UniProtKB/TrEMBL annotation:
<feature type="binding site">
    <location>
        <position position="206"/>
    </location>
    <ligand>
        <name>Mg(2+) 3</name>
    </ligand>
</feature>
<feature type="binding site">
    <location>
        <position position="52"/>
    </location>
    <ligand>
        <name>substrate</name>
    </ligand>
</feature>
<feature type="binding site">
    <location>
        <position position="147"/>
    </location>
    <ligand>
        <name>ATP</name>
    </ligand>
</feature>
<feature type="domain" description="PurM-like C-terminal">
    <location>
        <begin position="151"/>
        <end position="296"/>
    </location>
</feature>
<dbReference type="GO" id="GO:0009229">
    <property type="term" value="P:thiamine diphosphate biosynthetic process"/>
</dbReference>
<feature type="binding site">
    <location>
        <position position="73"/>
    </location>
    <ligand>
        <name>Mg(2+) 2</name>
    </ligand>
</feature>
<dbReference type="GO" id="GO:0009228">
    <property type="term" value="P:thiamine biosynthetic process"/>
</dbReference>
<comment type="similarity">
    <text>Belongs to the thiamine-monophosphate kinase family.</text>
</comment>
<feature type="domain" description="PurM-like N-terminal">
    <location>
        <begin position="26"/>
        <end position="138"/>
    </location>
</feature>
<keyword id="KW-0479">Metal-binding</keyword>
<feature type="binding site">
    <location>
        <position position="73"/>
    </location>
    <ligand>
        <name>Mg(2+) 3</name>
    </ligand>
</feature>
<dbReference type="InterPro" id="IPR006283">
    <property type="entry name" value="ThiL-like"/>
</dbReference>
<comment type="pathway">
    <text>Cofactor biosynthesis; thiamine diphosphate biosynthesis; thiamine diphosphate from thiamine phosphate: step 1/1.</text>
</comment>
<feature type="binding site">
    <location>
        <begin position="121"/>
        <end position="122"/>
    </location>
    <ligand>
        <name>ATP</name>
    </ligand>
</feature>
<protein>
    <recommendedName>
        <fullName>Thiamine-monophosphate kinase</fullName>
        <ecNumber>2.7.4.16</ecNumber>
    </recommendedName>
</protein>
<feature type="binding site">
    <location>
        <position position="256"/>
    </location>
    <ligand>
        <name>substrate</name>
    </ligand>
</feature>
<feature type="binding site">
    <location>
        <position position="122"/>
    </location>
    <ligand>
        <name>Mg(2+) 1</name>
    </ligand>
</feature>
Length: 312
């Protein structure tokens, strides 16, 4: 199968056209129109088989997740997703209609809820499956939510349950079936919540490398510390069946959650709950005028090394 045949057959119409696309797949470059009064937001992630997802992951799940992790980065800035570009390094045994069809359907499943268009990309042969996705989004000028901005007294919140993907991966690597497989393969990027938090959140990040490590990026960028209440962090009932140290390792260091972690003042927290009653947010701690991260369990400090996901 030639590169061009593969691209047009499976990816040329994988997603519907977006109103801001002037020229999509089919030329040397895509051309887009930036909405008036908006800034362009861009991010990029690379996923490699065996490192970012198990080799036995389905093509549909691989396609979905390769997009979802990038949309999660846009959500962490409060941006509106617009389009993606994708580079695919494909081993010979996967360069076939069956794999590419299911993979493209996974891309579509991730893009469709947010009206995101695949506007370009590249394919090449490789010894191992690797995917690089660039995601583009828009945000009104000056409204991006950065990691820098957390202030002493702010509440620390998350958007949903933490540690599920890590728990699922540990089960899979042991050769077990897991009821939490969808948390690993099909994370839901918190796009609508990210947009709603514009004007409310003082700092934000998505949880990809572990809650402890990613919250640490906010603390470092903002020059503050935090007190985290481990008992308040939402998770699944299956994790509560584990010994505390095992549970906390999944929650703090596991990663792959793609929930949002953000800070906001108590007043803005109350205002957000009033203005967006259908969007759940969960307070798990407080920003303090000190350095470092203090972990609390039953009102007592506990020591848990923060490692997070290591890329090398």
């Amino acid at each position: 199968m030639s590169e061009f045949s593969l691209i047009y057959r499976h990816f040329g119409s994988a997603t519907p056209p977006h109103a801001n696309t002037i020229l999509g797949i089919g030329d040397d470059c895509a051309i887009s129109q930036l909405p008036k009064g908006n800034e362009l937001v861009s991010c990029l992630d690379t996923l490699v088989a065996g490192r970012h997802f198990p080799h036995m992951t389905s093509p549909h799940a691989i396609g979905y997740k390769s997009v979802a992790v990038n949309l999660s980065d846009l959500a962490a800035m409060g941006a509106t997703p617009y389009a993606i570009l994708m580079g695919i390094s494909l081993p010979d045994h996967l360069a076939n209609d069956a794999f590419c069809h299911d993979f493209a359907q996974g891309i579509k499943a991730a893009c469709q809820p947010f009206g995101v268009e695949l506007i370009g990309g590249d394919t090449t042969g490789s010894d191992i499956l690797a995917l690089t996705v660039t995601a583009l989004g828009f945000i009104p000028q000056g409204q991006a939510i950065r990691r820098q901005g957390a202030k002493s007294g702010d509440l620390i919140c998350v958007s949903g349950k933490i540690g599920l993907a890590s728990f699922a991966l540990s089960d899979i690597l042991k050769g077990n079936d897991t009821p939490l497989r969808s948390a690993l393969d099909y994370p839901t990027p918190q796009v609508l919540l990210g947009q709603a938090l514009r004007g409310y959140a003082s700092a934000m990040i998505d949880i990809s490398d572990g809650l402890g490590q990613d919250l640490g990026h906010i603390l470092s960028a903002s020059g503050v510390g935090a007190r985290l209440d481990l008992d308040q962090i939402p998770t699944d009932a299956l994790l509560h069946e584990l010994p505390n140290q095992s549970k906390w390792q999944h929650i703090l260091n596991g990663g792959d959650d793609y929930q949002l972690c953000f800070t906001l003042s108590p007043d803005r927290f109350m205002a957000f709950q009033r203005d967006f009653p259908d969007l759940a947010i969960y307070p798990i701690g407080k920003i303090i005028d000190a350095q470092g991260l203090t972990l609390m369990h039953h009102d007592e400090p506990v020591e848990i090394p923060i490692k997070g996901w290591q890329h090398f």
